[in-house]
Specification:
Chain lengths: 439, 361
């Protein structure tokens, strides 16, 4: 198979060694779970429980509202003590269902019986994915059932599984592929059945040799046809959807378009695993694996965490920090969100929590652009980040508008390489925000 | 482990909030600038060795003048003073490298001041200048004090300028020897044919002398006459390797620049019918300021295009202009003017070479 090479990209220090050999561990369930009703792109779910009500583990507490939305389930059994606004990764005032853990876990730790999917048709399978509230676990958190059910005027011929995990520090996908390769293959077969495709590619960066080996063995052992493991050059942002599709198929997702416009659906490996759980065991999405990492974390690792667990609870479980953090990041260091406190809950799209030490955080002021062109040479979308940045500084949004700001995928490569330390991707975000407001 | 409320507060004390990405490459503007200075160091030291310690004085005056001018201008314009970012130091160093070794010290003083005040700070400072400040300074000096800028070459023992140990063929006309032994190699190439024309002789003896193995060796090692920075092609290339390795510069401009000069010279001398064609091409590559200009001045980030294709166009343009000036212009050397002229069209090149955005047809 031909591997296409996307333009640009960077090689930041990987820093995956902190956690990439540490097997998954369960974190104990917190006493209180703050479960946001919005953990996905689209409309928040509508709460269907009341304060004072007892809920079981996995019980539906938020009903998907409209086409682009997702169900939300109780991640712990217990009593709903509050339905109120809290700071969530999506909003300063995100509506959360707060559950105080109580009672017994109805499903966890029990022997499970596999559903037989042979008689199930596409709509039954889709219904299970939808009911489980599955969203993209790679970070974007787009409702998966919507992605798996493209409109009738689009034909899908290829499923791509994103196992590239190009963000530095993060190792959950790597660990999942290392430890659960056959489950992933099973999930891929289910997704292929839903989409009606015969071809699936699993893209994995070459720095995850164990994962590649495990998946290749799983493909052989399960005698899976149509599924191939594609080792990819280690380069950020290899896992960006458009770049991944281009690398594997040579197809360019048109500007403003979606993968389905080039007959492709991309799913993260974690999502694939969740699809399997939902279809085979009717298990709603109430937990996920996250990487808790950074050189100042006493017990870094890959942990299974219930949604609604707050960062502070996780930190306690990980033994705390060796020194005060300079930055707390939800997600990876390239695309993640900097937090200003630790009462924020983990949501479906959270892939990790990174604690950076003070000496790892730069607080330099930036200089003028020296037009070195590094941002241009690393931009995977072939934009001119320097010109966009200069236009924003002069508040010339008319100039910026012509430089394709909405094609920016916010990978941050331009900011990373800028020797003048200009916050270029932030500038582009400003253009996007200003222009969107005008429209 | 349980974290107490008081500790929770303390944990948040030093938090920084900013937009992603949260990690940055280690390279910064000052690091880039000082690495360029470091790369120029071997050639600079060699110049001091071959032309004498007075050269060090010229360089020092040039750099100090640049630093003082930068501080004064930034003070007057109420900007932060950034002389430690290395950019003014480079301008001073590069300007000095474009001067004859025995210029009076007021020349580098005035030249650097012009470079920084007029060509850099009045345009808005680092990042906003259109022309390479060092080259703008040199052009200003050349226009204002042409005699000082074109005659004060170093004289090697024996009264030679052209190289340290020129070996003239005994059959060479004495008028030609007299004329070219006191000129730089490129000066000799420009003036020699005129002398021969007066004597109604062909250019063969001149070409035999200049386009020879001995001459190429001198040019490459650097025991030749010329500007301070025009001595050792070898040591300039060593520094250039450092810049390429550290990815401060890319190959696009220097390679397209030098290749264009090589191509044009190859074609020109081919039609001149000379037999030592490869030496003629090498003579043009290693003589004058081509190596210095192609690797250290044309690659100036601020004044060259941002895209790779733009850089190649820029390099080809420089190569054509430098060759045309060398072959048909009034000056023996055309490197600085070629770069200055291409600096002027850089915004145009940038506009013409906008990359095709991914997914846009």
């Amino acid at each position: 198979m031909m591997i296409h090479s996307f333009h640009g990209g960077i090689h930041p220090p990987e820093n995956k060694h902190f956690t990439n050999r540490i097997p998954f561990k369960y974190l104990s369930v917190p006493q209180k779970c703050y479960i946001p009703l919005q953990q996905h792109i689209g409309k928040p779910a509508t709460p269907i429980v009341e304060v004072g009500q007892f809920v079981e583990e996995g019980q539906l507490i938020g009903q998907a509202n409209g086409l682009i939305s997702a169900n939300v389930h109780a991640t712990v059994p217990g009593k709903v003590i509050e339905i109120a606004e809290y700071h969530t990764p999506y909003s300063e005032h995100g509506l959360c269902v707060v559950i105080e853990a109580e009672g017994s876990f109805s499903t966890s730790g029990k022997i499970r019986e596999k559903n037989d999917i042979t008689p199930m048709d596409k709509s039954t399978l889709l219904e299970k994915v939808k009911a489980a509230g599955i969203v993209g676990l790679g970070g974007a958190a787009f409702p998966t059932a919507v992605k798996l059910n493209p409109p009738a005027n689009r034909t899908i011929d290829t499923l791509i599984i994103n196992g590239s995990e190009c963000e530095p520090y993060l190792t959950v996908d790597d660990m999942l592929m290392q430890t659960h390769p056959e489950e992933i293959i099973e999930g891929i077969h289910i997704s292929m059945k839903i989409l009606g495709v015969s071809k699936a590619f699993i893209g994995v960066e070459k720095n995850k040799a164990l994962a590649i080996k495990a998946l290749q063995n799983a493909v052989t052992n399960t005698k899976s046809e149509g599924i191939s493991v594609v080792p990819l050059r280690t380069r950020y942002p290899q896992g960006a959807e458009k770049q991944l599709i281009y690398t594997i198929t040579g197809r360019e997702v048109p500007s403003g378009g979606l993968p389905m416009d080039v007959n492709v659906v991309v799913q993260n490996v974690g999502t694939i695993y969740a699809i399997r759980e939902a279809v085979l065991f009717d298990k709603p999405l109430i937990e996920r694996y996250i990487t808790v990492t950074g050189k100042i974390v006493k017990k870094p690792g890959n942990y299974k965490v219930r949604f609604g667990t707050r960062v502070i609870d996780i930190l306690e479980e990980c033994g705390g920090l060796t020194e005060n953090p300079g930055k707390i990041i939800m997600g990876g260091p390239m695309c993640g969100l900097a937090l200003n406190h630790m009462d924020i809950p983990i949501v479906k799209g959270t892939s990790g929590i990174l604690f950076l030490a003070k000496d790892e955080v730069e607080v330099n002021s930036f200089r003028a652009c020296i037009r070195c062109g590094r941002c241009v040479s690393v931009c995977p979308m072939n934009l001119l980040p320097c010109d966009l940045g200069n236009a924003v500084e002069k508040q010339r949004y008319d100039i910026a508008e012509k430089l394709h700001p909405f094609d920016c995928i916010m990978c941050g490569s331009c900011s990373y390489v800028c020797p003048s330390k200009r916050p270029l991707s932030h500038f582009i975000k400003v253009v996007q925000t200003v222009l969107s407001a005008k429209r | 482990m349980e974290i107490k409320d008081a500790d929770r507060k303390r944990l948040l004390e030093d938090l920084v909030l900013s937009h992603a990405p949260h990690i940055r490459d280690t390279q910064s503007v000052p690091l880039v600038m000082w690495l360029v200075v470091l790369a120029l160091l071997p050639a600079t030291i060699f110049s001091c060795y071959i032309y004498g310690l007075y050269v060090a004085l010229v360089i020092a005056v040039s750099i100090i003048s640049a630093l003082i001018s930068e501080s004064i201008m930034q003070y007057l314009l109420k900007k932060p003073i950034t002389i430690n970012d290395g950019s003014a130091a480079i301008t001073g160093l590069l300007l000095a490298m474009n001067l004859p070794p025995h210029v009076p010290l007021w020349i580098p003083a005035i030249g650097s001041a012009f470079s920084i005040i007029i060509a850099k700070q009045l345009f808005g400072g680092l990042g906003y200048n259109i022309f390479n400040p060092a080259l703008a300074g040199r052009a200003f000096l050349l226009a204002s004090w042409p005699v000082e800028m074109t005659t004060l070459w170093h004289t090697f023992p024996g009264g030679y300028v052209i190289t340290q140990h020129p070996v003239f063929d005994p059959s060479m006309p004495q008028q030609l020897v007299d004329s070219i032994s006191g000129a730089t190699p490129l000066g000799a190439l420009k003036e020699g044919p005129k002398v021969l024309h007066e004597l109604s002789l062909t250019t063969a003896p001149l070409y035999d002398f200049l386009f020879s193995k001995a001459m190429i060796k001198s040019l490459f090692i650097g025991n030749i006459g010329g500007c301070i920075g025009e001595t050792s092609a070898l040591l300039l290339l060593v520094g250039a390797l450092l810049l390429l390795w550290k990815r401060i510069i890319t190959w696009h401009i220097p390679v397209s620049y030098i290749a264009t000069v090589a191509l044009i010279m190859g074609i020109y001398y081919y039609f001149q019918g000379i037999h030592q064609l490869h030496y003629a091409v090498l003579f043009h590559i290693f003589s004058g300021g081509l190596i210095l200009g192609a690797f250290y001045m044309a690659t100036d980030m601020v004044t060259s295009p941002v895209t790779k294709s733009g850089m190649i166009i820029f390099g080809i343009g420089c190569g054509i202009l430098a060759s045309v000036i060398r072959l048909w212009g009034g000056y023996p050397e055309g490197v600085s003017y070629s770069i200055l002229l291409m600096n002027a069209v850089t915004p145009l090149i940038d506009r013409l070479t906008k990359p095709k955005v991914f997914g846009v047809r």
